Every structure is written in C-alpha cells, then in structure tokens.
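Sequence dictates fold. Below is an illustrative record:

_____
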Amino acid sequence: MNSNNNEKLLVSSCLAGFSCRYNGKGKPNKEIIELVKSGRGIPICAEQLAGLSIPRAPAEIVGGDGADALNGEAKVLSKDGEDYTARMVTGAEKALAICKLYNIKKAYLKSKSPSCGVNHIYDGTFSDKIIKGDGVLSALLKKNGIDIIEVE
C-alpha cells in the first residue's frame, strides 16, 4: 500500500473492520485498518450511504456490471428480487462526493461486491460464479479518474 504519506485514500469500511456487509459482518484487513488509524484512510460504505439495511439479502448485478448499472442497462437486485439499483447509484455518487471533498485519487475496495467490486464481480445468478466487471462504486470512481486497488 505504497503512496504519498499525506495522501488521503478511500477504503471500503468493511475492510477497516466495520460490520457493514450484507451479512452484518466486516472483512478486516490489517493494512487497511492501519491506514484508517493513521488518518489517511477514509472509510466509506456506499451501500450504507445508499440507505441499505444491515443485515440485508445479498445482491448481485444482473445484466452487466456497474458501468452498465450506471447507464441504466443493468440492475442491482437482491437475492429476493428487490431492486437496489437507484440506491446503489446514489450511494456511489455520495462516495464520489467524499472523494472530491478530500481530493482522493486512490481507493482500496473490497473485491467482488456489487458496489465495490474491482475487475471481478458475481455474475448475477447467485451461483458464486465470478465474471469480469466492476461494481457500481468502482465503475463510477474509475470513470472519474480515481485509481482503484482491489483488496480480497
């Protein structure tokens, strides 16, 4: 996690140890936690910014990836069929606003998430199959020139 020592970095809240994932758990990553403790890592959860509950049914992008969801060509659906698309886009836009506020140019995001997923997401069938593509937040940040680093 090499970068300028004063640079602010966006990090997935779940990687910072916050219990914000769909299942009510976190995915703590020691290096990300240290970035937050040092004041450089700014933890966000676009799904929380979107107003989604914790816990909630898992969600996947159906019909494409995050870029397609941003363009209205794919949907983010929960396993029980609830459409989260508009809220996910709103949450991503709020996270982008935070990046602009702190002049953030780099983000460390959780892999495979329908929001944070970087280069790899679930295929929308809830069968644990991984495909190439970005989550909604990752796609929006990339579109705005923010460098994204995938963290498992």
Q: What stands out?
A: The beta strands are 9-12, 41-44, 59-62, 75-78, 106-110, 120-122, 130-132, 147-151. The mean pLDDT is 96.
